[in-house]
Amino acid sequence: MNFKPKLYQPIDSDVHKWGEMQANGSYSGLFGEMVSGKADVALGNLQYTPYHLDLSDLSIPYTSQCWTFLTPEALTDNSWKTLILPFKLNMWIAVLLVLLVTGTIFFGLAHYYLNLITFREDLKDSCQVNKEKLQGEKPVGLYLFGEITNSILYTYGMLLVVSLPKLPTGWSIRLLTGWYWLYCILLVVSYRASMTAILANPAPRVTIDNLNELVDSKLKCGGWGSETKKFFQQSLDEKGQKIGDNFEHINDPNEAATRIARGVFAYYDSSDFLKYLSVKRKQAKTMIDVANFTMNSTEVDSQGERNLHIMSDCVVNAPISIGFHKNSPLKPLVDIYLKQIIEVGLIEKWQNDAMYKIRTLDTSEEEIKALINLKKMYCAFIALAIGYTISTLCLLGEYAHWNLVVKRDPTFDKYNLDEYFKSKNKKL
Prior knowledge:
By secondary structure, this protein is α+β, with helices and mostly antiparallel strands. It has helices at 13-16, 29-35, 50-55, 89-126, 131-134, 148-159, 171-200, 211-216, 226-233, 238-245, 253-261, 271-295, 330-344, 346-361, 378-406, 417-424, and strands spanning 41-47, 57-58, 63-72, 74-75, 205-206, 220-223, 248-249, 265-270, 308-310, 316-324. Helix 12 (271-295) packs parallel to helix 14. It starts with 12 loop residues before the first helix and ends with a helix. The relative contact order is 0.14.
């Protein structure tokens, strides 16, 4: 177009950015340069909006940008419940029901065989013939399931792949034991495989990826300019209006990033700028951590800060244009050249070149390593603590039962305990 552009930035462009109307009617920032006639062309992510069109003529959009929020992410510390994570709630309910039902069936079959053996012995004593035919097998291992509590415990033991001390009498119990063992093996293999995957993977991250989650998070939202606040307030979506009502104007993106790292703020801007802001924050944090390690500094503490996450859903895909004076003679020819530049792919190439360094520095995706640390094994100590607690309560219960029930039994004789317990467990 036979001219050489002179590129410059307005005064305090980091603060005023595109610019707003001042109390005296003038404009600050980029549009202040345009309205005052100091600049002929405005470059700087000018969105194709009515507000910008009132102040200038805009070229045809040469690209579109995703405008969204930069939000904090959190790690879910669920190491204390690692033992129950391999199965979901409905699966645990099914396992518990199978355990109770199978233990009850074992108890019922054991009592059936005990009653059958007692009946055979009574019949043998009353008959004088065919005693050899009536003589049945001796009860072996039926004591394992003679009481409902023991039956449930030994059934639970098989679920933990602990073999029975003796194989019980009766083919029905033996067949049930065999098939229940197959069920236990399949269940244990599935549990171990899922547990291995959970321990090998890093802790899951909780992120905000849409407006519904952002509103539910109760985070304070903010961005640059009063026009952005109006954009949300005039939204037809109820979620957008809620964000607009509490939208905070903030000039300093670095201050916004600091508040996001504390987990109390969400910042609105284009996804490319948010990527730059998150990478810049991460690089600065890395340098601070190295300085703390080498110099043992205690002035700056980055512990407890959250990682920054760009919301995956776009609030709006805004078309971006170049700004000109009203009725500028440059606009028609610029539109022609822009179409040709877009068609040959130069815009996409320039954007990729501009973002290449930022994307190479982005190390938000951590390498997955199969490491087992002490934190992941909290569940083992919690299980041990629960076991100690239940054991102590059971011991206190047995002590109370011994003193309040057993010793007060009229048939109790502390000098002949064997006879007392035999009378209580005749069938076993």
